[in-house]
Amino acid sequence: MVAPTALNSVIDGKEVPGGGDTYASLNPARLSDVVAEVRLADSATFQDACAAARQAQREWARVPAPVRGQVVGAFGRLVQANKESLARLVTREVGKTYAEALGEVQEIIDTCDFFLGEGRRLYGQTVPSEMSDKQLFTFRMPVGVSVIVTAGNFPVAVPSWYIAPALLCGNAVVWKPAEYAAATARALAELAWRAGVPAGVLNLVYADGETTFEGLDAALGRGLVDKVGFTGSTLVGRRIGELCGRHLQTPCLELGGKNPMVLAPDADLDLAVQAALFSGYGTAGQRCTSLGTVIAHEDVHDEFVRKFDEAVRAAAVGEPAEGVVYGPLLDEKFARSYEEALSWIEEHHTVLGSSAIGRITAESPREGFVGDPSDGLYYHPVLVAGVRPTDRIFLEETFGPVVGVTTYRTLDEAIELANTPGYGLSAAVWTSDPATVFQFRQGIGAGMVSVNNSTSGAEAHLPFGGNGKSGNGSRQSGVWVLDQFTRWQSMNWDFSGSLQKAQMDVATVEADLDYRLPADWTEGV
């Protein structure tokens, strides 16, 4: 067992011992393996980080944007050079399979590659004026200090979605990662600092949720924070949205999902099963884009359930370094909440997918389990058929390896079912009919739509985000995220030598609006 590492917050380049409790970040695949001991900060330390960011941001904003882009590019190159090591740490600390961890690290590289170029494209516009000898301009200006709070299910990719564009745009960042992904966060921050990000421009604060909220409330009140980015639960997102609203700020909220997959009568069921297996059970169902409910047409429902049940029963579960579909749950608190979600299974449901539900143990084994489940947070995959739109398991996010299946007759009914839970992150439809695709896209409330693909999977140059319970309409990734970390500034420059007043001293052209074409021009037509 590797000796635990003691971790402190890092503010303005200096380690700051925490004033709160000490948290043990454990390997969820082997709970006896302590990855790191984390000294949590108190509210005052959180505010100190925001103050340090405020001080550092002024100089960082003066660095030309193309140069800031070079720093982001160097960050990506350092991640590339450390790809395997960082992926192994992700696997160890949060239990993600090594293959998925490699993909997650690649997402950082892709993100940095994209924003390297955006440093030369933080375009404003030169706008013609309605008056002579006057010119109008627009500029993207940094927001200021951004507080970024992230979950640990994507402990490095999702933070990069915030950090890379925030830095590129000239902001300073206070990053509060999940406590149970503390070592991974420190590793990512170290790579950013060594890429040339100044110490106070990126500050790393370890704190629990309530302390973070208390510190954020105080920092907003002191005028130290200009933007909040949050990835996590809908419940916490509501609290952050309310807090920011009191300070006339709009946060970037990326929240939970209850993502539907609709199977039309002409769906390729074999491929749909593969997609449902990946998006429903990959990362042990702990993605915001994880598949929630399959909504299958009545003509294909029974065959799909049979095929899907076979695939889930055959899926390899266990040690995340061994090529399995999924490993353990992230942390004990998520195991407890997932067990609560399993209690939503009712008598009218048909439970498939494994030999049992709940935790995999010697007394409740999973056939074909890879490794030893005795010291890890391993749970049976669960497939629930017979789900109804009034069921709690249909309406609420479960955040674990469980997928529901229900049926429909008409496409309108399928769209209504897909929208019923009120989330709006991701949705998928399986069909070869373009009309079905476009009717589904038009009717679904999700911010992201997949056709003949899974509900999970994002590319670095497409907007990522949801609506309804899944977020406030903000978007990450691609050029769209620039609107989160910049504010538009306009400037008018009058070089006429006189005071020209808008809407008053405007050049006009007289038009004869009473003119009509002669009638004889149209005779014989």
Describe the 3D structure.
Homotetramer. The chain has 525 residues and is of the alpha/beta class. 35% of the residues lie in helices and 20% in strands. It has helices at residues 43-62, 65-81, 83-94, 98-118, 157-168, 182-194, 209-221, 234-246, 269-281, 301-314, 332-342, 392-395, 411-419, 434-443, 482-485, and strands at 5-7, 9-11, 14-16, 22-27, 30-39, 126-128, 134-142, 145-149, 172-176, 202-204, 227-231, 252-254, 259-263, 291-297, 350-352, 382-385, 402-408, 423-424, 426-430, 448-451, 467-468, 486-494. The strands form six sheets. The protein has a seven-stranded mixed sheet, with helices on both faces. The N and C termini lie far apart (94 Å).
Write a concise keyword list for the protein shown above:
7-stranded mixed sheet, 525 residues, 2 domains, 5-stranded parallel sheet, Aldehyde Dehydrogenase, Chain A, domain 2
User: What integer value in Å does the Rg equal?
Assistant: 26 Å
Major pleated sheet: 7 strands, mixed
Uncertain stretches: none
Q: In CATH's first tier, which class of the largest domain applies?
A: Alpha Beta
Helix content: 25-40%
Q: What is the CATH T-level topology of the largest domain?
A: Aldehyde Dehydrogenase, Chain A, domain 1
* CATH fourth-tier homologous superfamily of the largest domain: Aldehyde Dehydrogenase, Chain A, domain 1
Q: In order across it, which strands form the biggest sheet?
A: 15-16-17-14-13-19-20
Tell me the fraction of residues in β-strands, as a range. Answer: 15-25%
Q: Please give the alpha-carbon distance between the first and last residues.
A: 94 Å
Q: Provide the structure class.
A: alpha/beta
Examine the secondary-structure arrangement and name the CATH architecture of the largest domain: 3-Layer(aba) Sandwich
Protein name: aldehyde dehydrogenase (NAD(+))
Subunit structure: Homotetramer.
Active site: 254
Organism: Streptomyces nymphaeiformis
